[in-house]
Amino acid sequence: MTTPRRLAILGVGLLGGSLGLAWKSSVSSGTVVGYGHRRSTLDQALRIEAIDEAYETPEQAVQQADIIVLCTPVGIFEDLLRRIAPALPAGAVVTDVGSTKRSVVRLSGQILPPSARFVGSHPMAGSERRGVEFARPDLFHNALCITTPTESTDPQALQTVEQFWRTIGMRITRLSPEAHDQLLADVSHLPHVVAAAVVAMQKDEGLPLSGKGFIDATRIAGGDGGLWRDILLDNRDNLRSALQRLRENLDQFDRLLEPAHAEELRQWLDAAAQRREKLLQQKLRELSD
Amino acid sequence: MTTPRRLAILGVGLLGGSLGLAWKSSVSSGTVVGYGHRRSTLDQALRIEAIDEAYETPEQAVQQADIIVLCTPVGIFEDLLRRIAPALPAGAVVTDVGSTKRSVVRLSGQILPPSARFVGSHPMAGSERRGVEFARPDLFHNALCITTPTESTDPQALQTVEQFWRTIGMRITRLSPEAHDQLLADVSHLPHVVAAAVVAMQKDEGLPLSGKGFIDATRIAGGDGGLWRDILLDNRDNLRSALQRLRENLDQFDRLLEPAHAEELRQWLDAAAQRREKLLQQKLRELSD
Questions:
Q1: How does pLDDT run across B199-225, given as a tens digit for each residue?
Q2: How close A107 comes to chain B (CA, Å)?
Q3: Which of B1, B97, B126, B225 is deepest in the core (most CB within 10 A)?
Q4: Which of A245, A100, A229 has the alpha carbon at shortest distance from B257?
């Protein structure tokens, strides 16, 4: 397996821009090309040296590329795959950074030519900020990347893609596209929706009384509505089942909210606190590894 | 109005200990006395100089005090008020740091002698940490303190209490005990319950995939179960109505979660993001004032 010499980044926003910066700071040679639908974004990406060459069509950007990374919102993947399909170099490896995986894996199988090799990826890095102006080379460092191979994934392409993410400092976990989407509905998509609902249900006169806890708890609701709309719609079956489980947990809490159940209520609260603390310690260990 | 010369802190945990440190760093003379039911906590409070004198009964601690601050969990307030009632110096001002206000205002009216003057306070500072070992003199600095006077509150005592909080750097807002409990159910108690439920509903295999967003969103669920149990039970009528409004907001989201409503869904998500951003900017302005 050789290091890709020509990397094409389709979509140079926060993730695409950071990917260019991270790759260029990790390898000593090679070329990074970028596609963006806004000229100003491409110019900014060139200026901060996230990319070496800029193209205004994805068809041009993928020419001669060894590895191609889809970095647009997931709602645009289908259109993007249709546009690059006829232009892909034979043997090119294609991956993505999307927060849902079933749809892009299915679409790539339907749309890309047999000579192209697709591997689904979800590098779990980001920010509620959007745009190449927030790009930074360490965005992916020490974070987890989930790859989602299937029975039809080319083993060598999988190796290439996993090595690619490792080169910029990521840890790898493999999951099926189905398991990925189910678990991410619980740990990422549901918390986003809940944070937005907690903001939405507030009265104007209550908000000035909120403290640091409220600001932290709702930070994830600060993301771009269009980006998240695509993710939530794409994963709506799993998200609905996560919402149903959340409702059941809230109903259970409601039943415990009586002086007669004070001890069980304390246990329910302590169990959540302890579970989170254990997770936090595990995350801190990972970061110090 | 004169600065209190003898401050009695009943309960020297995170809040009580921080209050002693804050007061002593803000005034040049006077004495801070502390009551705690554990000798080791009192010794630690003496060691870090959060208090000058330590007492193992609240009756002893309130002797000759000008201002007395209840800093135990709210579930202990009734017992504490019954114990100090016969021992209070005439004219003493009593306040508290409880996260609910209707019950302590009602109980103080029922239990304290007419010569004692009670004013409800909720200094909105704290941490998911517990214990005097986390006490720090700047815990209250620049934070908001809600006072909850009623028709029977002594105006001079109200002034004394508000000046007390201002001396340690707090901003003051007045609310009725009823309005306080209703608004705090929305901005504080509900977010705590929701964060705990989001942790509780996770599958073990999903948690390792959680990111920084999940850790932040659930931080408030890390608090002590016993403390929070008291608060949530005490405010359960308002909390239930907040939970009901959250359920309605989640149901509304659920109806929008269809490709046919993609535009409304984006607007719902963007509205929450923008509302939170506006709040964040306002909080940042307050801190820089």
A1: 999 999 999 999 889 999 999 998 889
A2: 18
A3: B97
A4: A229
